[in-house]
C-alpha cells in the first residue's frame, strides 16, 4: 500500500509537518486545520450541526462530507479528511463558507497568484447569483476547486488532481453559460471552452499546474474535434517589443504541448498580443503574474 506522505507528516506533529515541505507553511489553515485523530468526531459534529438554510449550503455541505469520506476511506488521508469534515460543519444556517485561499496552503508566490486568479473568477460567479440560480453546480465548482488546491499542494496523486480540475472546469462552464431565452430559435452552436495557463516571470516554461490544464484542453479537443485558438500574453514589465516576442514564444510553447498531446496542428490558429490585452490592468513596467498567460479556446 502506498502511504500518502502527508499522513506521515501529520502523525509526526507540527515540527515534522513543516519539515516535509520547503515552502513556508506558517499560514496553513490554522483556524480549522485537520487532525488525523479527530476525523470521526468532526464528521459527527458536522452531521449534527445546524442544517443549512439554502439549497447551495445543503449541496456544499454534502459535497464536503463526501470528499472527507473519500479522503479517509480511499486514500487514508485522515488529516485532510478531518479538515474537510470540519469545513462541512461550518456550512450551517445561512453562513457562507468560501473556497480555499491558496495563500493558506503550501505554494510558491507564483502558484498562489495563479490559483487566486482561478478563485477570483469562481467567487465572481458565486457572488453574481449562481449560488441561488444553480446551487448544485455552484457547490460542485467550489468543492472541486478546494479539491484541486488540496491535492495540488500534496502533488502526488496526479490523476486525482487532473480529475478535480476537469470536474471544476465542467461546473464552471455551466456557471459561465448564459441562461437561454425562452423563444423558438435555431439551436445555437456550443460556446467554445476556454483554458488558461500561466507563466513565471520572463519565462516560457510550462509549469506542472499548466500541464494539467493542457491535458484538459487536449481532451476537450479530442471530444469535440473543433478548431483551437492559442493566444500568448505578457505583463507590462519590460519593453513592449520584447513582451510581444515573449508572448509569441509562450504561444508556441503551448502549441507544442498541445500537438504533443495529439492535437492536429492544422486545426490550431496561433496569435500573440504581448502586453496589449492585460487581464489585470496595470501601469507600464508593473509585474503581474495573472497577465503572463496563454489562453486556449477550443470550439
UniProtKB/TrEMBL annotation:
Question: Which UniProt key words apply to this protein?
Answer: Cell outer membrane, Membrane
Location of this chain's protein in the cell: Cell outer membrane
Keyword Membrane in the entry? The reply is yes
Concerning SUPFAM superfamilies, the annotation shows: OmpA-like (SSF103088)
> Which organism was this protein described from?
Thalassospira tepidiphila MCCC 1A03514
Q: Could you tell me what this protein is called?
A: Cell envelope biogenesis protein OmpA
Q: Which Pfam families match?
A: OmpA
- InterPro entries to which the protein is assigned, alphabetical: Bact_OuterMem_StrucFunc, OMP_bac, OmpA-like, OmpA-like_sf
Name the predominant localization.
membrane
By its UniProt entry, which Gene3D superfamilies does this protein fall under? OmpA-like domain (3.30.1330.60)
